[in-house]
Structures are given as structure tokens and as C-alpha cells.
Design a protein that fits this description.
The protein is an all-alpha fold. Helices cover 73% and strands 0% of the residues.
């Protein structure tokens, strides 16, 4: 396996560990900036599949989803820069952005699976979607940040 692919898999592994509330090994915490841009592709695909799963009628592509993913990426970069600057370690900005993105990718994939499963069994009550698919991922991300 090529070293670049192995390194990207290590980044995804670090994100999975963080999503499962486990601290990754120190050698996995410093990630290259290029991984941030590479993670945008699977993140956008998970978002696209999530929108497709929720579609009840004819499927129509809307660029609003792309804008939402782009805004999310910008917010991750801004938050990473702010945290790194506050810690006096600006050099960590990209590593933080990559780890946040990798963790978010796993959380989104887990939530997409939960959404798909819930839709298969029509298990939503009034407001249940909001609680499960908005608040749970937000809390999950916040608690992952402690690791």
C-alpha cells in the first residue's frame, strides 16, 4: 500500500477513534493539511446520500447542499484556527481541522445509517427527527472534543 494512502487511512482511523471517544495514538494526531481537502469528497457524498435517503418524491439536485457543505468546511477551518491561536499553537490549525473533519465524517455516516434504519421502520414521532438527527450529532461532536 502506498504511504500516502496508508497515511489517509490513519487519518480516518484517528477520526473513528475520536468518534468512539478513544484518544488516538500521538503519532496519529498530527495530520497533513491535504487530508482536509481529501475528506471533503466523502463528506459531501455522505451528505448527498443523506439527502437522497430523505427524499420522498422525485429526486432533484440542488446546489444548496454543496453550499451547506462548503460553509461547514469553512466553519471547521475557522474554529480550528481560533482554538489553535487560543492555545498559542497556530501550527496545529490544519491538524485540528483534519481531525474534526475525519471525526465528523464518521459521526455523519453513523447518523446516516441510523436515519436509514429509522426510515425503514417508520419510527418517528412528532419532532423525533429533530431530536435525534440534530441534537445527538451536535452533542456527540462536543463530547468527542474532550478527547
Amino acid at each position: 500500500m502506498r504511504p500516502a494512502m496508508k497515511d489517509l487511512l490513519r487519518t480516518l482511523g484517528a477520526g473513528l477513534w475520536l468518534a468512539l471517544f478513544v484518544k488516538p495514538p500521538p503519532s496519529w494526531r498530527l495530520r497533513p493539511a491535504a487530508h482536509f481537502w481529501l475528506l471533503l469528497i466523502p463528506t459531501a457524498l455522505v451528505s448527498l446520500v443523506g439527502d437522497f435517503v430523505q427524499q420522498t418524491g422525485a429526486v432533484v439536485f440542488s446546489a444548496d447542499g454543496v453550499q451547506q457543505d462548503a460553509l461547514g468546511a469553512m466553519l471547521v477551518l475557522a474554529a480550528s484556527a481560533a482554538v489553535a491561536a487560543a492555545a498559542g499553537q497556530r501550527v496545529l490549525t490544519w491538524s485540528l481541522a483534519v481531525l474534526i473533519s475525519a471525526t465528523g465524517l464518521w459521526i455523519s455516516a453513523f447518523m446516516l445509517f441510523a436515519l436509514w434504519a429509522a426510515l425503514q421502520f417508520d419510527q418517528f414521532g412528532p419532532g423525533g427527527e429533530l431530536l435525534l438527527f440534530v441534537f445527538v450529532p451536535c452533542l456527540w461532536w462536543l463530547f468527542c472534543g474532550g478527547f
